[in-house]
Amino acid sequence: MSYQKKITKADALKKTQKTCAKQEKCEFDIRTSLYKWGLNDLESNEIILSLKKDNFIDDLRFAIAFVKDKSTIYRWGKHKIEFALKQRRINDQNIQLALKEINETQQEKSLEKELIKKLNALKGQDELVIKSKLVRFGLSRGFENGKIFDMVKKVMNSHF
Predict the structure, then answer these.
(1) Which of 39, 54, 93, 127 is 20 to 30 A away from residue 60, measured at CA?
(2) b vs e for 47-57, b when ≥16 Cβ sit within 10 Å of the residue's Cβ?
(3) Taking the model in full, what pTM does it have?
(4) Residue 109 pLDDT > 60, yes or no?
């Protein structure tokens, strides 16, 4: 890992405030940046506390924005979103609250749209192979098993 030049605590605070004002960040993202800038744990904790106190960072607010972004723009399923939030060390309670923001109807439409797009790319192959690839594709996008199997069946029936 390459380290940037060590910056002062005051400069780090200003820099993180500016970053957080532009875009939602979670505590883990900020802590990672502070580590890269060469700040020790004590300095990092003080900056994090200051950012939380001034409402620059809020993990629940970050999680909700993340869920909305990934489910609508990138068409990720619940499982993939949940895993990504866990990687950012968002607590389970905040993850569950944020996942409630997902519109189930929109998720089904997204899954169907993605599967149809994938199906069109797989033309000319055996039906069983196509089904298998569609299921794996749905899983890789983080959708739930039951929904994937139902939607693959629906998509396959409408195209064959």
Answers:
(1) 39
(2) bbeebeeeebb
(3) 0.87
(4) yes
